Amino acid sequence: MKLDPNDPRLTAYALGELDEFERATVEAALRDNPELRRELESIRRTTDRLTTELQTEPCPELTPQQQRAIEESLNELTTTEPSFSWSKLWWTLGFAGAMAIVLGSLFLHTQKPAREQQQTVKLRVPNETAGRDEPPARQLPWDADQRATRRVAPTSTALTGGVVINATSLNLSKYIGAPYVAISAGTGTGATAVALFDYISGTVTGILVTSAGAGYTNAPTVTLIGGGNTNFTLDRSAISLAANVSGSSGLFKQSAGTLMLNGTNMINLVSGVVTMNVANTYTGGTVVNGGIVDFNSGAFRGHGPKVGAGLLTLSGNNTYAGGTRIGYGGIAIDNANRMGAGAYSLGRIGDGSNPSAPTAGTAPVPWQQYPAREDALRYYPGGESYEAYGENPFVTVTEQPLSTFGLDVDTASYANIRRFIGERQLPPRDAVRIEEMLNYFKYNYAPPPSGQPFALHVEMAECPWNSAHRLALIGLKAKEIPAHKRPASNLVFLIDVSGSMQPVNKLPLIKRAFHLLVGQLDERDRVAIVVYASNARILLRSTNATDKDRILAAIDSLKADGSTNGGEGIQWAYEQARQNFIVGGVNRVILCTDGDFNVGITDQNSLVSLIQQQAKSGVFLSVLGFGMGNIKDSTMQKLADKGNGHYAYIDDLDEARKVFVEQLQATLVTVAKDAKLQVEFNPAVAQSYRLIGYEKRRLRAQDFNNDRKDAGEVGAGHTVTALYEIIPASSPGEPGVDPLKYQPQPPPRRGVSDEAMTVKLRYKEPDSDTSKLLTAAVKDTQQRWNKTSDDFRFAAAVAEFGMLLRGSQYSGNANFDSVIDLARSGCGRDEGGYREEFISLVRQAQRIVRPGAPDDR
Amino acid sequence: MNRADDHARQDWVRSLMREHEGALIRYAASITGDLEQARDVVQDTFVRLCAQHPTRLQGHATEWLFTVCRNRALDVRRKESRMQPLCDNQLAGCASADPPPSDAAEQGEARSQALALLETLPDNQREVIRLKFQNGLSYREISRITNLSVSNVGVLIHTAIKTMRRQFQAMEGVSHET
Known about the structure:
The structure holds two protein chains of two kinds. Chain A is an alpha/beta fold. In chain A, 24% of the residues lie in helices and 21% in strands. In chain A, strands 24-23-22-25-26-27 form a six-stranded mixed β-sheet, with helices on both faces. The longest helix of chain A is centred in the first third of the chain and has 21 residues. Chain A starts with 7 loop residues before the first helix and ends in an 8-residue tail after the last helix. About 24% of the residues of chain A have low confidence. By secondary structure, chain B is mostly helical. Chain B starts with a helix and ends in a 6-residue tail after the last helix. The interface between A and B is large, with 81 and 79 residues.
C-alpha cells in the first residue's frame, strides 16, 4: 500500500482526523515505508510546535461598554423556542429550589469581581414603533449601496412543505421585517412560502416552503417583496417545487426537526449519494437505482431527540441495487425485505470480510442480526454516545518493536455491556472496550513483597482462537492496604439531582450505595455532599464520618428535579475538598451522574480542562455512572481520566456493593498514578503482535519516558491485565518483510535470544512527579495448556467474548461455545460469583444471536 | 418561560462568553485586520447568541460562535475593502494602519516565529491553521465554519504545514532528512 509523502492524509493522520478505515490505510502504508514515517514525525514536530506557539498570541477583551450591551440583550430578550425538557419540571421547584437559584446567582456575581455589576438602566434609542422591542443601540455599518437586486443561486431545492431553503449564503440583509414571498409563473399552482427573518441582524435566514403546490414542471419565480428593502428575485434555475425531488443540486434540511418522507418514490436517486446525518423515519418505501444510501457516521450516534433517537427503522420494504454501507451505527429491521439487495458492509468496504447480503424472505423474522454469523447490525437507544477508538492491528516486530500504552482500570464497559444484554440487545461496537472487560474481574496474581508497589505476572501459551498464534498475559498486582492502615479519606460527593435522575436505578440507588459506604468509614474520614441540578448547592459541608445520622439524613433528603448544570457544582465540590484537605490522605471528589450535562459548561473540552486544573491541586476525581440511556460515556471517561481517577458504571445494588465495600480501597486509594507499560518484543522469537484492547490508551514510544504525559491510575489491591496475541517468528504468519539491505543489523545481545519480550512499567507515587521504572524479561516456556492458570484461561475467554461483540476481524475461530468452555475451565474459586455471572452473560448473548440455542451446557 | 429558566440561559451565555470571548476577538482580528472592528464583530456575535437556546446549540455552541463571528467579520472586511481596494493576498501581507492585535512591539516581547510565519501564508491557509491550532477545532467543524469541504480543509492544512516546516528549517539553519 503506497502513500505519497505529499498526501494530505498524512497530516490528517497526525492530527487524529481520519476515520477508522482511512487510519488503517495510512498505518499500513507507514509500516512499509520508513521515509514516510520520518515525514510523519516531521509533520508531528511541526504541528506540536504550532499548537504551542500559536496559543501564545494574546486574547484581547471586550470593552466594558460592549460587555454592558451584551448584558442588556441578555436581560431583555426571551427566546421563543419551546423548552421541552424544562418547562414542567421548573414549576415543581419549592422554596429550596428558589433559594438555590438565588444562591446560584449570588455566587455568579461573587465569582467575577473583574466584571462590572449588571446595570438596570437600559440604554435605548428612542423608537416610536409601538409594541416592538428595539435591539440595543450598537454600531452597524449600514450602507445604502448594499441594497441591490442581486441574483445569486440559492444552495438548495425546495420540497414538500416544512422544508427550509437555507438563505444565509444569499446575504439577504438590511430588512426591517420579514418580506412577503411571492411565487408566480411556473406551470403549477398553489405553492406558498414564507420568509424566516432574524430581526437582530436584519437578515432573511431562510425560506420555508409551506406548501409545494402541484403541477410544477418548471421552476416558478420566487420574489421577496417589501420588508423594508427592495424586491429581490431568487434565481430560477435552482428552485424546483415539484412533487418529487429531482435535479442535481443538494437537498439541505436546515432545522433540527424530523424530516418525514411520506409516500412512495420519495427519493429517485440515479447516481451519487444520499447521506443521512441524523436519525430519520420513513414510513414509505425508498427507491434507489444505483448509487448508495449511505448511513454516514453521524447517523446513529444518538445525538437526536430522545424518542427513537439513533435508530433508523425500515418498517416498509425497500428495493435498491447499489448496496448499503453503514459507517457507524445501525438499522433496525424485522424482515429481510426491509433492506435492499446487493452487497452491504459495516464500514469496511473492500476488505473482503463483508458479510453476505440478507436474502429476501417471506415470513417476518424477529429482530436479529444479518448475516447469521456474529457480525451484527446494532442499534442505539436514545441519547448515548461512544467514542470510536478502533482496533489495534497486528504490527511486525521489526517495524515496531515497542508497544506502549497507559494502564487503565476503568471497568464501566463491562457493566454497560451487561445492561445491554440484560435488555436483550447486543451493545454498540464502540461500547465494548476489552481492557475494561478484562479488568472488571479479580485475578489472583501474587501480591508484591512489602516495600514494592507492584508485582508483575506474565504467562504465555497457545492462543485459543488461533492455534498457530501465542497468547501472552501480562498481569499487574498493586499492593493491598489492610483496612486499619488505610489512609484517612476526605470525600466530596457531587451528585446529579436533575430530573433525569429520578428513576429507581439512579438517585435512589445512589442513596442506598451511600448507606453502604458510610458504614465503611470511621473517625479518620470526612464526607461532604454537593448537589447540582439547574443550580448547585452544598447539601452537607464536610462532616466527620462518625456523624452518620446527619450524613445519612442529608442523603435521604435528596429529590431529583430540574435540569443539569454540572459546571458550578464541580467548582464547589473541589472547594469543599480543598478546604478540608488531609495531607497524606485520600482527597477525592466522586461524581455520581447519568452523564446528562445540559446547561452550563456544555463544551466537553472546557469541562475537561477545569477538571484537569483541579486535579493538579491533589484532589482526584472519580466518576460513577448510573442508569441507562442518556449515558455520555465518552464524557465521563474523559473526566475521570483527566481527574486522575477512574470511571465505573453502577447498574444495581450488587455493583454498588462491589465498588463501595469490596473494592473500597481500590476505589479510594491510589497507589500509583500515570502508570504506563512498554513492551519490547524480540524479533527472533516474535514476528508480529497485537495488543488486545487499550486502544484508547495507546501512547507513542517516546511517551513512555515522558513524565509529563498523563496516563492511568492504579488503586490499592487492583489488578491490571493486558493480553497480546503473538505470531511467532517461526510461523508462516503474514508475508514477511524483506531483510533490510542498507541498515546495519546488530546481533542481539548475548543471553537474550530466547527471551520473547521485556516488560517495562513506569509509574509515579501519588504525590510525586517523577516516575519509577520496573523491568522484567519474559521467556516463552512453551507452557502446555493444562498447566495454564485459571486466570489465564478466564482472561482469554473474556477477550474472546469481547472480540465477538465487536465483530473483530481478528477473532479467528472465536465463537460463543468456545468462550463458555474456556471460561468454565478458568472459573476457579470465583469469589463473589462474578465469573459465573460472566458465563451466564455469554449464554444470554448467544441466545440473542441465535434464538433457540440450548439453555444449559 | 419563567425567570429561573432565563437565569439558566443567561448563565449559559455568560459562561460561553467567559470561555470564548478572547479567542473570538483574536480570530476576528485576523480577518478584519483591525482590533476595534474585531471587538464590534464579537459583540454582535454574542448579542445574537442571546437569542439562541442552549438545547438547540447543544454540542455545537463553539462551532456556531465561530461561524457567526466569521460571517460578521467577513461582512465588515468586505465593506472596508470597498473603501480601500486591496486584494486578498495583499491583505495577508501588508501591515495595516492600526496596530496588530498582539501589539508585540510595544510590549517588548519577541513574537514567536510561528506567529510571524503565519502572516506570510495565504489568507485561506492562515485561517484554517488558526482554527485548527489556535482554537482546537476539528476538520469537520472547520469545514462547516468556512464552507469548504473537509478534504479541502485537509489540503490547506497540509500545504500550510509543509510551508511552515520548510521555513522553520530555513530559519534555524538545520537540515532535517527529506
